[in-house]
DNA sequence: GATCGATAGATGCAAACGCATATACATCGG
DNA sequence: CCGATGTATATGCGTTTGCATCTATCGATC
């Protein structure tokens, strides 16, 4: 424990966030350089990924919006683009006349799987050598705890 | 240690990154909602912040580019906008006729400090209650180790 | 010191973005 | 039921973004 990071709780929190953010930038830079993002932008892949993890298949557009770092209007148009490319389909929500449900098409699911595999390989070569498995487990636990706490409020 | 996350090294690395990324999105969402980003977009603040941390004051534009998640052309124009707003100034690099040096103006330094203070408060209220000080220290250590490893190659 | 590949930064252009707002539907109090 | 208030999505519009490309300079080789 260095003197620097124990000066004050506020300072520690700020430095922790700063470090987390920089790590994210560094990893993301490398990932974006790979060929996986040639055909699909990060946010577009992220939407396909989120949909692929959804048990029922269908997801409300506003729920999608919680996972992605995009404004509501941008997500609306992003989904529109994905629909035009035949990667997702939309239907009106049966229980809410305002809502729209989104799900992957067969082509969308295939593309997500294909890019996902590449993506996972890239991540493994970046993160694997950086941290021991025990450290990765701990990092996973801490970031999950942070995310849960932040989204709770 | 759950069975799920110990299936394979590749899977563990992918899940760790996924969790880190989601935490970053969740925190960033909250930060962007605050009034601190009303006057300055995230990337613009990030540039001012990076410049404020630079010992000599002057920083090469291409070095700036390593810290920010932006293409070279976008950063070029971003700095141009900051210059027009009187927040930074540019000068040709004395030792390299191709290069450009950037530094904060007085107004830029003031604005960075002002937004930085707000920013730090927001972070403290998000991260502080989420993790114990010891956990924050550990998260700081792990993300710094990850960043160092990734940027090394 | 001329040539050639590599690097730093700027710029044209189309695509994507966020903000403000419009529209349609839900929900609640009377 | 009806109006008021709130929520889900779409759209107009100005701004920002990335890609491709251009110019200028660097550094190495001969």
Description:
- With 153 residues, chain A is mainly α.
- Chain A has one domain (10-151): Arc Repressor Mutant, subunit A, CATH 1.10.10.
- The first copy, chain A, is 64% helix and 8% strand.
- Chain A is built from 6 helices and 3 strands.
- Chain A has helices at residues 9-33, 42-52, 61-67, 72-84, 106-127, 133-152, and strands at 59-60, 88-92, 100-104.
- A 3-stranded antiparallel sheet of chain A has the order 1-3-2.
- In chain A, strand 2 (88-92) and strand 3 form a beta hairpin.
- Chain A is globular.
- Chain A starts with 8 loop residues before the first helix and ends with a helix.
- The mean pLDDT of chain A is 93.
- The structure holds a DNA duplex (30 and 30 nucleotides).
- Chains A, B: This is DNA-binding MarR family transcriptional regulator.
- Chains A, B: Pfam families: MarR_2.
């Amino acid at each position: 424990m260095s003197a620097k990071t124990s000066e004050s709780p506020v300072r520690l929190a700020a430095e922790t966030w700063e470090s987390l953010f920089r790590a994210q930038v560094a990893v993301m830079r490398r990932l974006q350089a790979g060929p996986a993002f040639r055909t699909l932008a990060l946010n577009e892949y992220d939407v396909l990924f989120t949909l692929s993890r959804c048990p029922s298949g269908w997801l409300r557009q506003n729920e999608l919006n919680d996972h992605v770092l995009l404004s509501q209007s941008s997500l609306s148009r992003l989904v529109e683009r994905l629909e035009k490319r035949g990667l997702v389909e939309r239907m009106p929500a049966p229980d809410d006349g305002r809502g729209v449900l989104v799900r992957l098409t067969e082509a969308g699911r295939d593309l997500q799987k294909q890019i996902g595999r590449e993506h996972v390989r890239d991540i493994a070569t970046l993160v694997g050598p950086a941290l021991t498995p025990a450290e990765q487990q701990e990092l996973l636990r801490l970031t999950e705890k942070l995310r849960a706490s932040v989204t709770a409020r």
